[in-house]
């Protein structure tokens, strides 16, 4: 018996006969399985294409497409090179072989795992390394403009060796491995890795603007740590715009900030700036700025109320004080919107805060910059199409006939017109004159030049700018001349001490036009009859022209040439400061600032007007001197620390004292017909002083404040602040107000789950805030007192009350909350932000009408509560990015809903002009009769009566709320295209959902009430006979149907889309700059206010004032500019 060798003791025949066959099959199956596993290992396919792909990205694709896990140590592959890959259905083995080429690793496959291991150096590699000495590395780190970056950190990757750049951006590293990788980092810039060489030049790429430092109340912070809603505008965005003041340049750049009311007057009035809706009750007067945000320049709250000449008709707004500051001096503008951002400014901040930071020196080589720009204004925008001479004559004939056809024959009409209008020596009417051409220049030119020098070292830095601007207005005789100087100096006499000074001075001369006057300014040119000549046949001017049954028009060309309207002003803004670092964590800073203005205003009505037999204006000389001073002292103590690399804590304590002084003195003298025209002094022969006015005011404000900021792991942030203000403007019971805020922020993108599941999302942050701020801008030093005046009573001097005071008036207080979202994704190519907010203003201050029996017209009082709520969206991104071509897009949209939620007084008490207020409605809504067109039977005007039916009796018309002057939405869109060194950009601005009252239409469509002024083309559609379906009523001489009275007839939609700015520029490349020994050179041409798409029938809708109307304002111009910016 044979024994089976595998089973000792078991006879072979006892084994089943098929056992060997089964074993063979098992072995074959196992071998096939191993082969299949091997085939699977190298038979998997991969498709992936990308330039400069990292190994981490490729390994992730391998896992996703093949199911194999790639095991590696992240630290080991950090030194691996990025490669270009183009795998299309490529075997996994070929992929891994490709990846390991010229890389410091090898791979192996075990089961479903691909293991990445470092390569073992060969014997030859060890020998070469032993004989290859390390190298010394010297390099320079530059920003995008080629300027040195001071304090950049340069590290050797994977080692402890590092260096910091000096004042010239230079670093030096000794004995560095020639294969090492250097990592360069700098705040606000992306980290950059470069391969080691003996000599290096590294140009850094700036991160998105959101990552830069943000100037906030009493300091700076980072965008990450910010819990408030702040929009930052760089000085470069506005310095080349053709505006002489920065306020008008902000239109469209800041979500939530609506800007209107700016005029084309050289150096003219402050624009109306409303941030997140109207947050105060007053004031609707022309030129008022109490609704504008607080403006703080280098820590000094500045005065920006318009200079006004009270003796001028309509109290013309003369000068914009912000035009006395050079916009090219601005480094950044931070617009603070919510409670967390504004609460530290307390009682001055409910309208928001605009922080302006001016340029200062930087340590390093001295840098020289020169900027020149020439602007040429083109034809008017918003010019209404008027009747020509023949159309106007036909209209006049019809007007006479419809008044009394029996009385007015053709011969009689012609004879009367030849009495009203001048004729030639042959008895004919003069040829039609071009009044706009006579009053306006064909090309108004503006020239701006400024040169700046900056530099310093580690101990001292300086900045000096000298600027000259000469702006010629479109209206003849108007111009603005500004000479300005800014000097800043900062010194560190010791490592713990910093001393500094920042001073700005300007000298300004403005020759302005009383453009608001319909009697003699732009309005006169607009309505001047085409039968009136600019000059008579003998070459002399005709001084006055007929207007209506009463009144006259002055020749606007003569007004411009003969009259004097001049403002000479001086502006100084200066700050001294000291900052001391104490006990490592503490910083004490003391600022002393002053803003002062001196203005000398002079107006003269030429006596030659008085010589005209029809003139009703006497010769007049008026002078007014005004002085304003705003002095402020701020002391702060700041504690800042970080511990355990996890927690950051900042505590701020501060005290502030402010005093505001104002003084004015004015005098007026009236002359007689014998007065010679060249006399310009108040005491000139033939002039008698008719009035002397003056006044002085003093306000003091004392404040204490504090703030706490806390951060954890650089992703969780909390903030809180409180401020207490005391003001001398209020009574004893209401002198103090307390304001506060709380905010929080969470950077979600720093969480592990976000990095794991949304690696494409570079940055996402949510933030929220709530708090209270105040306002007292409408209250002056004498509001709480009754005012007296000296009058003649029964032939004797007597003191009588002139206005009623209110000792119980209180601060306005605005409580608000805000929720915000900030995102950047796709390698920061796209940025998005969104805010929703709610603001409620209590104790709204408003001018309240009083019953006539009180003997006073009105009083300033707290009349109720108001709410604003809205949404802001902003999107920016790089649509196309390639080596030579880039296309970037910026867009924003804002919407605000306003409502008066509580009114303590009747409707009639808070109605003003075109507007009124009622609970549940938009604050300052239009309130007027509704126009119901023309009665087809008799041609009379019609308005809606209380029963809803038409009435032709104006006194029976019912007033209704008919719209609002605030838009439902507004925003801007900007595209920038760059090809190599060329740049092209275009900006659009839009608004919709508002109404504007066109007060100029009272003259352009007056139905014959003012028969001797020109009419718009629309006036031709008027009623002539029964059954006519027309837009305008019948025409009668000196029409008393009152169709021109305030109603919705002149209320129009204010929607528009404007092509705001187009720029074409060439930025010289670094190679060319090096040859020219320059650091920057930019040439550009641009157009501003190029086109507008609107159905608004009046002048430019941007001329709308705070009262919701446009009239005969100095029109905005279309302008073209060319300029050069050079640095070396």
From TrEMBL:
What SUPFAM superfamilies does the entry give? Carboxypeptidase regulatory domain-like, Porins
Record domain Secretin/TonB short N-terminal: where: 68-119
Give the Pfam families listed for this entry. Answer: CarbopepD_reg_2, Plug, STN, TonB_dep_Rec_b-barrel
Membrane topology annotation:
Multi-pass membrane protein
Q: Which GO terms describe its biological process?
A: iron ion transport
**Would you say which domain of life the source belongs to?**
Bacteria
User: Gene3D superfamilies from the xrefs?
Assistant: 3.55.50.30, Carboxypeptidase-like, regulatory domain, TonB-dependent receptor, beta-barrel domain, TonB-dependent receptor, plug domain
In its keyword annotation, does this UniProt entry include Signal? no
* GO cellular component labels: cell outer membrane
- Chief subcellular location equals membrane
Transmembrane domains' residue ranges: 21-42
- Provide this UniProt record's keywords sorted from A to Z: Cell outer membrane, Ion transport, Iron, Iron transport, Membrane, TonB box, Transmembrane, Transmembrane beta strand, Transmembrane helix, Transport
Query: Domain TonB-dependent receptor-like beta-barrel: where?
Result: 524-894
Give residue ranges for domain TonB-dependent receptor plug.
223-353
Give the family per the record.
Belongs to the TonB-dependent receptor family.
- NCBIfam families (alphabetical): OMP_RagA_SusC, SusC_RagA_signa
Name the UniProt record assigns to this protein: SusC/RagA family TonB-linked outer membrane protein
Q: Give the lineage.
A: Bacteria, Pseudomonadati, Bacteroidota, Sphingobacteriia, Sphingobacteriales
């Amino acid at each position: 018996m044979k024994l089976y060798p595998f089973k000792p003791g078991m006879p072979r025949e006892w084994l089943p006969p098929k056992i060997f066959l089964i074993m063979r099959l098992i072995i074959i199956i196992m071998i096939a399985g191993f082969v299949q596993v091997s085939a699977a290992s190298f038979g998997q396919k991969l498709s992936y294409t990308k330039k400069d792909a990292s190994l981490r990205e490729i390994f992730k694709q391998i896992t996703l497409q093949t199911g194999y896990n790639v095991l590696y140590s992240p630290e080991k592959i950090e030194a691996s090179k990025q490669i270009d890959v183009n795998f299309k259905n490529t075997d996994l083995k070929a992929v891994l072989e490709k990846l390991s080429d010229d890389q410091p690793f090898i791979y192996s496959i075990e089961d479903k795992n691909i293991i990445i291991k470092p390569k073992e150096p060969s014997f030859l590699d060890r020998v070469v390394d032993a004989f290859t000495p390390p190298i010394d590395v010297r390099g320079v780190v530059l920003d995008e403009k080629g300027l040195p970056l001071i304090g950049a950190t340069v590290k050797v990757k994977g080692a402890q060796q590092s260096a910091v750049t000096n004042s010239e951006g230079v670093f030096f590293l000794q004995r560095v491995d020639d294969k090492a990788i250097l990592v360069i980092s700098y705040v606000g810039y992306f980290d950059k890795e470069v391969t080691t060489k003996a000599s290096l030049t590294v140009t850094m790429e700036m991160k998105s603007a959101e990552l830069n430092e943000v100037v906030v109340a009493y300091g700076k912070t980072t965008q990450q740590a910010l819990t408030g809603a702040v929009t930052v505008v760089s000085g470069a965005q506005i310095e080349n715009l053709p505006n002489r003041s920065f306020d008008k340049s902000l239109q469209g750049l800041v979500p939530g900030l609506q800007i209107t009311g700016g005029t084309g007057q050289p150096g003219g009035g402050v624009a109306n700036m409303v941030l997140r809706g109207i947050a105060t009750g007053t004031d609707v007067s022309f030129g008022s700025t109490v609704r504008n945000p607080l403006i703080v320049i280098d820590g000094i709250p500045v005065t920006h109320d318009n200079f006004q000449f009270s003796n001028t008709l309509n109290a013309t707004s003369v000068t914009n004080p912000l035009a006395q500051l050079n916009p090219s001096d601005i480094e950044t503008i931070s617009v603070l919107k919510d409670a967390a951002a504004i609460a530290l400014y307390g009682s001055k901040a409910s309208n928001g805060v605009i922080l302006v930071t001016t340029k200062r020196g930087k340590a390093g080589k001295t840098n020289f910059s020169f900027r020149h720009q020439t602007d040429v204004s083109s034809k008017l925008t918003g010019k209404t199409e008027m009747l020509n001479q023949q159309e106007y004559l036909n209209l006049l004939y019809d007007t006479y006939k419809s008044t009394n056809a029996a009385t007015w024959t053709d011969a009689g009409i012609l004879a009367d017109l030849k009495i009203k209008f001048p004729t030639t020596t042959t008895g004919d009417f003069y040829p039609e004159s071009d009044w706009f051409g006579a009053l306006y220049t064909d090309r108004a030119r503006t020239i701006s030049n400024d040169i700046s020098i900056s530099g310093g070292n580690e101990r001292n830095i300086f900045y000096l700018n000298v600027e000259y601007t000469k702006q010629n207005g479109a209206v003849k005789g108007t111009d603005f001349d500004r000479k300005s100087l800014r000097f800043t100096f900062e010194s560190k006499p010791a490592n713990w001490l910093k001393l500094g000074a920042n001073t700005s001075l300007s000298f300004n001369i403005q020759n302005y036009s009383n453009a608001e006057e319909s009697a003699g300014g732009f309005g006169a040119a607009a309505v001047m009859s085409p039968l009136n000549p600019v000059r008579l046949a003998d070459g002399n001017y005709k001084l006055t022209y007929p207007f209506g049954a009463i009144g006259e028009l002055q020749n606007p060309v003569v007004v411009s040439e003969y009259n004097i309207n001049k403002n000479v002003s001086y502006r100084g803004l200066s700050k001294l400061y000291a900052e001391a670092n104490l006990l490592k964590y503490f910083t004490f800073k003391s600022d002393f600032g002053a803003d002062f203005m001196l203005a000398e205003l002079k107006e003269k009505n030429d006596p030659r007007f008085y010589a005209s037999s029809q003139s009703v204006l006497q010769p007049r000389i008026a002078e007014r001197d005004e002085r304003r001073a705003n002095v402020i002292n701020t002391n702060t103590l700041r504690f800042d620390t970080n511990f355990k690399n996890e927690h950051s804590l900042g505590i701020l304590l501060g005290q502030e004292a402010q005093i505001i002084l104002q003084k004015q003195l004015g005098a007026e003298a009236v002359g007689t017909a014998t007065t010679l025209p060249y006399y310009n002094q108040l005491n000139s022969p033939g002039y008698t002083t008719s009035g002397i006015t003056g006044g002085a005011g003093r306000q003091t404000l004392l404040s204490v404040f504090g703030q706490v900021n806390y951060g954890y792991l650089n992703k969780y942030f909390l903030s809180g602040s409180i401020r207490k203000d005391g003001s001398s403007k209020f009574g004893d019971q209401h002198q103090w107000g307390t304001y506060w805020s709380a905010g929080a922020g969470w950077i979600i993108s720093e969480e592990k789950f976000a990095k794991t599941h949304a690696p494409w999302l570079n940055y996402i942050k949510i933030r929220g805030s709530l708090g209270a701020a105040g306002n007292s801008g409408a209250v002056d030093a004498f509001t709480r007192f009754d005012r007296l005046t000296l009058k003649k009573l029964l032939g004797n001097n007597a003191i009588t009350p002139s206005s009623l005071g209110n000792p119980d008036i209180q601060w306005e207080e605005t409580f608000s909350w805000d929720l915000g979202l900030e995102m950047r994704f796709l390698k920061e190519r796209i940025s998005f932000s969104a805010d929703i907010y709610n603001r409620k203003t209590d104790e709204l201050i408003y001018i309240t009408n009083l019953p006539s029996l009180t003997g006073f017209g009105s009083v300033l009082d707290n009349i109720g509560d108001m709410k604003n709520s809205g949404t802001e969206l902003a999107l920016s991104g790089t649509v196309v990015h390639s080596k030579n071509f880039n296309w970037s897009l910026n867009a924003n949209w804002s919407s605000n809903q306003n409502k008066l939620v509580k009114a303590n007084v009747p409707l009639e008490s808070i109605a003003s002009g075109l507007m009124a207020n009622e609970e549940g409605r938009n604050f300052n809504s239009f309130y007027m009769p509704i126009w119901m067109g023309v009665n087809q039977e008799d041609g009379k005007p019609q308005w809606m009566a209380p029963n809803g039916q038409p009435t032709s009796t104006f006194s029976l018309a019912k007033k209704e709320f008919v719209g609002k002057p605030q838009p439902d939405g507004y925003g801007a869109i900007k595209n920038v295209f760059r090809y190599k060194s060329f740049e092209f950009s275009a900006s659009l601005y839009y608004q919709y959902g508002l109404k504007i009252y066109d007060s100029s239409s009272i003259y352009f469509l007056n139905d014959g009430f003012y028969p001797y002024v020109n009419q718009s083309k629309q006036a031709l559609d008027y009623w002539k006979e029964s059954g006519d379906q027309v837009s305008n009523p019948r025409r009668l001489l000196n029409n008393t149907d009152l169709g021109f009275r305030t109603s919705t007839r002149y209320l129009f939609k204010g929607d528009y889309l404007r092509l705001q700015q187009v720029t074409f520029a060439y930025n010289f490349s670094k190679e060319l700059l090096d040859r020219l020994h320059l650091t920057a050179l930019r040439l550009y041409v641009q157009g501003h206010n190029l086109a507008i798409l609107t159905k608004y029938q009046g002048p430019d809708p941007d001329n709308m004032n705070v009262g919701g109307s446009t009239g005969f304002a100095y029109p905005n111009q279309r302008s073209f500019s060319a300029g050069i910016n050079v640095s070396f």
